[in-house]
Specification:
It contains 3 helices and 5 strands; from the N terminus they run βαβααβββ. It is an alpha+beta fold and 95 residues long. A 5-stranded mixed β-sheet has the order 2-1-5-3-4. The model has no long low-confidence stretch (mean pLDDT 91).
Length: 95
């Protein structure tokens, strides 16, 4: 199963998570969208932080698949291998 790692800035919004702990889960799915759906099924509060009302990643979210940024960011139909790691984090901006 693909592994999902949710950065501490997002995972701390979940009950029982500490401020500096990543959330790491092995979840089923053959695409990024499938794996995210499994994540949101287990942790519904994350949905509103990660995706918008149309299911697209929010501007402030970055997704990495095996260390490479998902580009374009809304390509959630991208297939993922059973051993893939999907890292979900808040993007940084500013100057």
């Amino acid at each position: 199963m693909p592994r999902v790692v949710v950065a501490p800035a997002l995972s701390r919004r979940l009950p029982g998570q500490g401020d500096d702990r990543e959330l790491v889960l092995d979840l089923p799915g053959g695409t990024v969208a499938d794996v995210l759906a499994a994540l949101f099924a287990q942790h519904p509060p994350l949905r509103g932080y990660v995706v918008d009302e149309q299911g697209a990643p929010r501007r402030h979210i970055a997704l990495f698949i095996d260390g490479d940024a998902l580009q374009p960011k809304n390509e959630l139909s991208r297939p993922v291998s059973p051993g893939a790691e999907i890292y979900v984090m808040q993007a940084l901006s500013g100057g």
